[in-house]
## 1
Amino acid sequence: MKKTIFYISALILFCATWMGCKRETDYIGVSVSPYISNFDLRKLFRNSDITLNNENLGGADFIKGVVISNQTGSNAPSGLLVLQNSRIAGSGIDSLRGIAINIGADAAKYIPGDSVHVRITGATLKKVSGMLQLAGVLASNIEKKASGRAIITRAVNTAALASRPGFYESTLITISKGNVDPVPTSTTKVVGDKTINDGYGTAVVHTEATSTFANETITPFADFTGIVFNTATGPQVWPRTFDDIFPLAVIKPSALVITGYLTDPSGSDANYEYIQFKATRDIDFSATPYSVVVCNNAGILAAPATGWALGDIRTYKINLNTGSVKKGQFCYVGGNKNIWGAGTTNIASGVWISSTQYSTVNSVDFGTATSNLLANSGNVAGIAVFEGLVVTGNSIPLDVIMYGGNGAVYAAGPPEAGYRITNTDKYSTIQNRKAVAFYGAGTNTSKFAFPSTAGYFTMLGGVYDAKTGLWSTGRAAQFIQLTPTSPLTTIETQAGFTTIVN
């Protein structure tokens, strides 16, 4: 019996060892794929040249993918064909990877969207000037299978690119809302290395002197698309053609950004609601006035024909034309200067730019008196800051947020109608290279939630660049519980409030 147990144990151990040595694909009825993904191919490189063979490729001979390089613009490392592919990796892993293949002049035969199969056995995986590529691939080992295939272009910010250059190498990306730094003149050419800042950090956009668009003038603000090539100095984005640089209207930094609001005071709402802002520069409102407009769409199921200027019971305008505030200070616009309604802490020690009895005083220019300046339930509501004292249906805000429920506040038309937005942490006025001007259009549907219960101040926390007008960290809402005795510091020194840089 003991011998039988011994032999069984030995047999089990032998089988386990034998199975452990087998490759994942060595199962009865399963054949090894002749294709390896870029995801797996790139992992084979261990900081030294490696010649590819059937063994280290796990039985594969080919890669297949979609061409993203475009030699017609002459803005790519000479002789490189760049293709990207992906495989099912599970657990939400982004397996899209690219690889550059050095095939010399034949690279010009392929255009973006071509589907190709490439025999890579015998080729060498190596780094050249900091970039991983395949060398020794014969042009005859590349077969075009189709054309016009869809190309995945990932939206990537500069911080992500800087932290994972190998991840994005040889793939097509778009860095949105990039400011060229220093600001170019009307005659600055695109040629060379241009530093762009998207609010998350910086990246280099490179254009060769021999490219077909080297002498085009560069726009100061754009969406920059291109292939990521790693160099000795770090990753660079190489536009393939001039069309990869899509100009945007320059963002005008807002002197005031919206950082909080009280929608549900203790007791009556009338004249106790308020909005909190933070100044991004010193402001003398008598010299440079601004306007704040709120919209309240309770019970309304129609898009406003004249947007923020509609008036009546839907929009209310407050002029900011007296007083002053210093850069980095909070300031307030609203009703009585109490932190949470009648009889609660007086916060007149804060910087109040306007204290308006909105329940009995009509709005300036448009809008009627209302006991509920800021909605605390129901359809979506909003707050917008405008430059100057004139607001029309065509006026574009400097900063804007929406909050609350739903409601039909946008109509596609023609003509379009709704509340105009601007480029912020939540909204984009250019999407897929088309103008998107209103809240509710395109992907401009972001809004903050109402507090779950009464008695909370809504605090918005993010990081705003006063120089570029970009948010490196988008605003997120936190709800601060108030009491009748809460001091002003409760809504000014809490961790997580919006901070201003530059």
## 2
Amino acid sequence: MRRAILGAATLILAASLAAPPAGAADDSTPAASLPAEPSPWLFGDWNGERTRLKDKGIDFQFGYTSEIAYNATGGFRNATEYTDQYVAGVTLDLDRLLGLPSAQFQMTFTQRTGRNLADDAGLGTFQLVQEVFGRGQTTRLTDFWYKQEYLGGLIDWKIGRMGVGEDFAAFSCDFQNLTFCGSDPGNIVGNYIYNWPISQWATRVKIRLDGFGYAQIGVYDVNEKYLGVSQALLPVFYSGSTGALIPAELGWLPTFGNGLQGSYKFGVWYDTSRADDVVNDDNGNPFDISGLPPASHRGRYGAYINFQQDLTDRLKIFLNAVVADKSTSTLDRQIAAGLTYTGLFPARPEDDIGFAVGTTHMNDRVADHQGIDGSEYAAELYYTWRPNAALQFRPNLQYIYHPGGDSDNEDVFVLGIKSSATF
């Protein structure tokens, strides 16, 4: 709780220091004395040095995100937990720096600290109510890749250490509940598809389809050691890889009417690794009863859609759906839909409100064996207050019905606040 109070107080103090004083400019203020364009960085432009470095090809990124959550109902006790993430990165424009045309290099480090309400209060949910928690509370290398375009951007090639969700089924993380955050394949088969902040050695080729959108395919090394903390800061090659994850995605990027943009992604994946059956042994009996090893299967696979569409210049909607094979996946599908609206109040034109509903489903084979229904349903409502361009506070309400897909579990109601700053 002390960490939560300290973190919130720090961000509020930063907002008060960075926000311009009320009444700083009015109609009688000379144009020459009007404030400059709002800085995207909380600590400003370093007396112009940051912009000069970016113009030369060196673009730094520094960010901080915190998430507070309190369970008013659900779990075995009421608790408040605080978790956060620090990000430091740099993008190098290799065209400007070295003369390599249409080439760039990205390196990003992340650090996560804090505690997880879902565990500490025993909520029993499939998905985290603090999405920024997880994958080891440690410092790690999250990006270490090289990218280059060819034939005027027709072909885009990327290679290095990167996460699947950066390029495939990519989706924002505005919501605090993981049901509505990030690349959804990693939300249900996170044992081999690793979302941010995990990176793995991979390569990806993207082809622009003029007048339509793009097509892309990737190959990612599959190795559980990427999840560990050993040498997590180094771009090492781990031994013991089990196979290759091969995702493919087709993206349609239409524009309707008066500039209303859409994004419609259709994707599939296949992992060449061998994996255990989630229920049965080789004789077709439950292995937890027979005592025999689980049956083994060659290959794990799934498919997804990711739709986003502007309905007006302020209203946007989305639909995400993902399914995974029933032989090796404990969770076999997730569906989420929602909307965001910007400028609900004329006095706050940059603030936005979001609402989403979704479900995560346990494989029927596993659910039937455990004697539960298997479907967890979640909803979240948030409002974003942006005191300036570099800072935002997002209080939210979350409701989880049948957490863990079990109707015997008490429904969960969470009060949260997600805050982020760009330095």
